[in-house]
Amino acid sequence: EMAIEDMVDIALETGAVDNRDDPPQSGSRVEGDELTHTGDSTPLVSSMQTVGGGMVAFEFSSEGVIGDDMVLDDDRWRWRHTLSYWVCVCYILGSILFVAGSAFWYKHYVHESRERALVVYPFLLGSILFTLGGYLGVFQAINLGRRGTSKLWEWSPEKDGFLGYWFYFVGALVYNVSCIEPLELFADWPDWLKREMAWGAAEVGSLCFIAGAFVEVRTTKSLNVFEAVKSGRWRKLPFWLSWNNLFGGCLFFTAATAGRWDPTSPGWVYTTYLIGSVNFFIASSIMLWLWKEEQYGLGFIP
């Protein structure tokens, strides 16, 4: 394979020897010597033959492979760069709060207000951050390749990363219901309804986490562990990112199911949530490392 440095040199040399003017902006095309308006039809990426100076940013897959001999324009590169960063930050902060809430859960509190401050509120804030991170991922996926004004929502299962982030987003939304159940606002609600809010919602949310992680495992081609070990893919960061997310989702589902029968079990509930939260923290930290390595699609978007 051609080294990245060589490809950059070729791109810059091509732009240097190209005596044409800069390519027309979005909404125009050149026909002979005339500039004709065509609407919003400029592609998301420009081929290397039209690059002439400025920032040169290649589109990488999560495994570091350059996509289709193409480069991103400056504005799209910065947009992809910034949005991916905030996805990472939301997941990292959310998982840290999950770890803190799980750790403080072991202690028996005399005052409910203290338990809310150390357990309930960290879980609630962490879930909100996971919701925000999931939505930012969905927003990123639906607007890839789009010119003009970005859309806040569109059902786009055919786009890279959409389904995975959508499952994470929906799972976090449902999980918020579980996190608000201990609030004093719901203290007088029927016991059966509070139980379903606390553990039923946690089960549904965790199943969505598992579904999103499964999409991620397939996207990173890590589902067949034996093949991944044989090919050496297990040494790549996306392998560990996707499997940590999958383990975290499975452990959260186990804890939610156990909590329905024994809500105060130190082993099945507290410890299982704690380990799952650590899995999510490891995964989100790997996401940030991928971002640092300029793999802005993280674990989902090639």
UniProtKB/TrEMBL annotation:
Annotated transmembrane regions: 83-106, 118-142, 162-178, 198-217, 237-256, 268-291
Keyword tags: Membrane, Transmembrane, Transmembrane helix
Region annotation (Disordered) ranges: 15-42
Record protein name field: Uncharacterized protein
